[in-house]
Amino acid sequence: xxxxxxxxxxxxxxxxxxxxxxxxxxxxxxxxxxxxxxxxxxxxxxxxxxxxxxxxxxxxxxxxxxxxxxxxxxxxxxxxxxxxxxxxxxxxxxxxxxxxxxxxxxxxxxxxxxxxxxxxxxxxxxxxxxxxxxxxxxxxxxxxxxxxxxxxxxxxxxxxxxxxxxxxxxxxxxxxxxxxxxxxxxxxxxxxxxxxxxxxxxxxxxxxxxxxxxxxxxxxxxxxxxxxxxxxxxxxxxxxxxxxxxxxxxxxxxxxxxxxxxxxxxxxxxxxxxxxxxxxxxxxxxxxxxxxxxxxxxxxxxxxxxxxxxxxxxxxxxxxxxxxxxxxxxxxxxxxxxxxxxxx
Length: 344
Ligand code: AMP
Ligand code: TRP
Description:
Layout: E1 4-9, H1 17-33, E2 37-42, H2 44-47, H3 54-71, E3 78-82, H4 88-97, H5 102-106, H6 109-116, H7 121-125, H8 129-138, H9 141-155, E4 161-163, H10 169-186, E5 194-196, H11 228-237, H12 254-267, H13 271-277, H14 283-309, H15 312-341
């Protein structure tokens, strides 16, 4: 049997090139190796932690399904589905939550970032323990539980590999901890999932190279749906570093290094050859070419997506078929788990 590989993306807004280069492109490449049984899902339950409007969430779910397919995920090769359609996931989440120390959830970086997001950066740094407790007390419980649901997503299919961006590594480590705990207490059941990272595990924002590109900060994002004109404008405006050399140095020249990473990934050229090519050129020259590289790279994706937009029924059918397959595997795991923990 092929090893199981799984990943999910939240339908919480348009996908940006960080999501693509850090995750989605890798999903497609891994799928196409034929070496894994792949599951890819729309993490709609995770997206609920941000309390979206119902109409936005449903639009985002379909949009993300189109992104999956336009990028090259193929229902003939992978199981593609919506997380919320797998009812038994809730049972595993509950069981895993009973093995989870609350303190582990409170120390998660993503949780702290989400909870503190409304505060100004300067205020976050000098926050007192009392104030932090007050803010956590008011935050929704789903935000705290987030990693337990994610662990359930992974474990319920007995997953071995999880392609994600760097920001998810702590959540994966948490899932590994739960595997050790569960297996230690109830006997070998789950496999410790291993992350698979890309060459661009953490793309930085176009307007601030010290922050990762993130859906929640749209000003610094380049979206997969952006038109050539928008891409041109965004790359033109993207911040650069002092000096004028096109040289990869993520410490001292984080902005240009980030743009070079995009160039490298999309043009398939090494950093060395990019440095050589732009040795006597200006940031302006580099940015002009980078724009062309991005526009050309995204063009096939955008064309396919346009075609898929006219076929919403087909997309719903793909998601339903995927969920039906995933549900069976999830149920088998749950029967085993229930027996092992004494729920006869
Ligand atoms: P999310 O939108 O949070 O569901 O993220 C979907 C996937 O994209 C996850 O695997 C993330 O780790 C990855 N990802 C998100 N932002 C970035 C980024 N700036 N650079 C690389 N990968 C990212
Ligand atoms: N938390 C992930 C993110 O924001 C999405 C996700 C949910 C996920 N469940 C998962 C990713 C299971 C991998 C495996 O990107």
